[in-house]
Design a protein that fits this description.
2 domains, five-stranded mixed β-sheet, Tachylectin-2, Chain A, binds 2,5-dideoxy-2,5-imino-D-mannitol
Length: 479
């Protein structure tokens, strides 16, 4: 079978499976595959009026395996159109799978760059490849593939996830790798997108930032450059973000500041859109570790909410959900001033089976004296605390606590907020099996999958050690 026959066969299997997907944990307003497994976002590109997304996809089952590229597009991040699969393993150099990569538009064509993998004995050989499309839907693999057939001396057999971009009249490619326990970004340069010259190591771990760096992304932002990498063998496994300068003459990224992009357990392989005038990011909302209850229902994995990145005046990375998401709001569930000391009792009931929820807590930090305050969602039947979102004024920290959840990751996840601000805003987005929390601190988000057996959640509010003065809005988000 040729490449397009393989794609058609896989599409058919996926279509049949979609009919059998259980809806218990299906998400209302997040992107997810019609059926079966997905992981990393790939090839995010703004092309001919659409945001195109591709993703690592196994069209044959709800577990990782046989990596294809799924494909969809949107104009507004609200309505998504699923498209035929874009890439399938079909050639000797990618017989083991089409791993992650990126996309660029050039000369009226859409170019996908991906890692072809194949087994040679017990070794997984990884090479960099391209596929091209005129209509942005059907892709043909480059007959010259692989374009980069082996890794340089500074790298290793872990050599994958090409990220391509344009700068100053040339094309650049960052490839993730690692050697001797240090994750690396290897840099290549090209004039024509097909012949690539190795430049050198653009960035590497200082020893405790992961042994392999996967899914690099490197882009200009607010007068600086930002480098994102997803590290292997680092605990916890979080996307790392570095702010600095890209020295193209030396082929090196000079780090000035570093941090974790999101502090939750279900956020990995983040990538931003090429060709858009805004820097919008998506990540895989799941993780390699832990149980995935949706597999029992024939699917796994989703994208996070799209998030817009910016640098503030002090050069710190800020992350916020894209403003388009306000269009999801269909009705106010609750809106009130809050003057609370102690425990509120059930403030509102939300039914995650029929819609999602956005909570916005705006805290008057001058008048609030409570040491810690927040929101707790519990299931109406068992009364268990499913997820708590809280703030410690003294620590200047925002928490997502899922330690009492019955399924999924259990933990207390922390990011920084600035308690000296006059007003502190915390936003939490709940979907049928996810929660994403945004503070207003540096890279202040926490993402986790949650799996309530009972979709009816009761919301409580609490303030310990003083008074909470705030306002709370709860919005129903349309499926
Ligand atoms: N997932 C892909 C790889 C990448 C990893 C395989 C990151 O290309 O390094 O599905 O999650």
């Amino acid at each position: 079978m040729n490449h397009s026959d393989l794609l058609r066969a896989a599409d058919l299997i996926r279509a049949q499976a979609a009919a059998r997907v259980g809806d218990t944990f299906r998400l209302h307003y997040h992107f997810m595959p019609p059926a079966h497994w997905m992981n990393d976002p790939n090839g995010l590109v703004y092309y001919q009026g659409y945001y195109h997304v591709f993703y690592q996809h196994n069209p044959f089952g709800p577990r990782w395996g046989s990596m294809h590229w799924g494909h969809a597009r949107t104009k507004d991040f609200i309505t998504w159109e699923h498209l035929p699969l874009a890439l399938a393993p079909s050639e000797p150099y990618d017989a083991g799978g089409c791993f992650s990569g990126s996309a660029v538009a050039a000369d009226g064509l859409l170019h996908l760059f991906y890692t072809g993998v194949r087994m040679e004995g017990d070794k997984l050989v990884q090479v960099q490849c391209r596929a091209i499309s005129q209509d942005g839907v059907h892709f043909t693999k480059d007959p010259r593939n692989p374009l980069i057939s082996s890794y340089p001396r500074e790298g290793s057999a872990d050599f994958r996830d090409p990220r391509v971009w344009r700068h100053g009249g040339a094309w650049y490619m960052a490839v993730g790798s690692g050697k001797n326990g240090r994750g690396k970004v290897l840099l290549y340069r090209s004039d024509n997108l097909s012949r690539w010259d190795y430049v050198g190591v653009a960035a590497e771990s200082h020893g405790t930032q992961g042994a392999i760096w996967e899914c690099p992304d490197l882009f200009p932002l607010g007068g600086k450059h930002v480098l994102l990498v997803s590290p292997v063998e680092r605990e916890p496994r979080r996307v790392l973000c570095f702010v600095g300068e890209m020295d193209y003459a030396a082929g090196q990224f000079r780090k000035e500041a570093e941090g974790e992009l999101d502090k939750g357990p279900d956020f990995y392989a983040a990538q931003t859109f090429f060709g858009s005038d805004r820097r919008i990011l998506l990540a895989w909302m799941q993780s390699w570790e832990g149980e995935i209850p949706t597999q029992e229902q024939n699917w796994a994995g989703a994208f996070t909410l799209p998030r817009e990145l910016s640098l503030d005046a002090a050069g710190r990375l800020r992350v916020a959900p894209v403003p388009e998401l306000k269009q999801l709001r269909t009705g106010v569930v609750f809106s009130s001033e809050v003057d609370l000391e102690g425990w509120s009792g059930g403030l509102a009931i939300c039914d995650l089976q029929s819609s999602g929820l956005e909570a916005i807590l705006r805290v008057d930090m001058h008048q609030t004296t409570a040491d810690e305050f927040g929101l707790l969602w519990r299931t109406s039947t068992g009364g268990e605390g499913l997820a708590a979102v809280s703030v410690s004024r003294a620590q200047g920290e925002l928490y997502l606590d899922t330690t009492k959840a019955r399924r999924g990751h259990r933990g207390r996840y922390v990011c920084k907020v600035d308690p000296r601000r006059g007003e502190l805003e915390v936003r939490a987005f709940l979907d049928r099996s996810s929660i994403e929390v945004f503070g207003d601190g540096e890279a202040g988000s926490i993402t986790a999958r949650i799996y309530p057996d009972d979709p009816q959640l009761v919301l409580d509010m609490f303030a310990r050690g003083g008074v909470l003065k705030a306002s709370l809005e709860l919005w129903e988000l349309a499926p």
